[in-house]
Design a protein that fits this description.
By secondary structure, this protein is α/β, with parallel strands linked by helices. It folds into 2 domains: about 120 residues, Rossmann fold; about 80 residues, Alpha-Beta Plaits, CATH 3.30.70.1450. The protein has 9 helices and 11 strands. The strands form 2 sheets. The protein has a 6-stranded parallel beta sheet, with helices on both faces. A 5-stranded antiparallel beta sheet has the order 7-8-11-9-10. Helix 4 links the parallel strand 4 and strand 5. The longest helix is centred in the middle third of the chain and has 14 residues. The radius of gyration is 22 Å and the shape is elongated. GO terms for molecular function: monoatomic cation transmembrane transporter activity.
Length: about 220
């Protein structure tokens, strides 16, 4: 499904996010007051408006309320992000996401009813720490940080099948993909009779504590 997404604030984070969404096939409308940033974004995003997002009327005139999602990324101004978020909620935007600069800012945004708050620095730090401390770690699940996705390389399970290993009952994890040794692509939802060979990789989902127990 192609989404129509708005990004208010086209600094490094906002513009990078917008470009990624466009690359994924979605339509992205950018809103920015700085003319240089508007110019930089015009060849990247679907449409760019040079308007003041602190004006409720301006947001309404560009039909921001018709978009599926709007993300607010207005730098270090807490007051601006709160005001713009309130306008978006009042205008009936379906999903309002906001970039916060710290946890107190996050709490304030949740109190006014925004749908999602992201703190990029916290997210990046957590990802890096997890990858250092937990080799093979890919990502936490957004709805439950006790759950994660991790990739493993086969060594001791040479010749074993998923049915024999019975990983769901033994560890409480679910294998969601297999990548054969030397292959760049993954086989998703592997069959129970798939046989592992040394150097093969598999991706599993489960509780972090259970994933840590697996030594394949």
């Amino acid at each position: 499904m192609k989404l129509q997404i708005g990004i208010i604030g086209l600094g490094k984070f906002g513009l990078k996010l917008g470009k990624t969404l466009v690359d994924l096939g979605h339509e992205v409308l950018g809103v920015e007051t700085n003319p240089d940033k508007v110019k930089n974004a015009q060849h990247v995003l679907t449409q760019v408006y040079q308007v003041d997002a602190m004006s409720r009327e301006a947001l309404e005139q560009i039909r921001i309320q018709d978009l599926h999602h709007v993300l607010v990324s207005v730098g270090d101004s807490i007051a601006a992000s709160v005001m713009i978020s309130m306008f978006l909620k009042e205008l009936g935007v379906a999903k309002v996401w906001v970039k916060a600069i710290h946890q107190d800012h996050e709490k304030l945004l949740h109190k006014i009813g925004v749908d999602e708050v992201v703190i990029p620095e916290f997210m990046a730090a957590k990802q890096i720490a997890s990858r250092i401390a937990m080799p093979g770690f890919l990502d936490y699940l957004p709805f439950d940080e006790s759950m994660a996705v991790k990739e493993f390389t086969i060594k001791d399970w040479e010749g074993k099948t998923l049915l024999e290993l019975n990983l769901t009952n033994t560890f409480g994890i679910q294998v969601i993909a297999v990548r054969r040794n030397g292959s760049k692509g993954y086989q998703y939802i592997p069959k129970a009779n798939e046989t592992f060979h040394e150097g093969d990789n598999f991706v599993a989902i489960g509780e972090v504590s259970q994933l840590d127990r697996v030594v394949p």
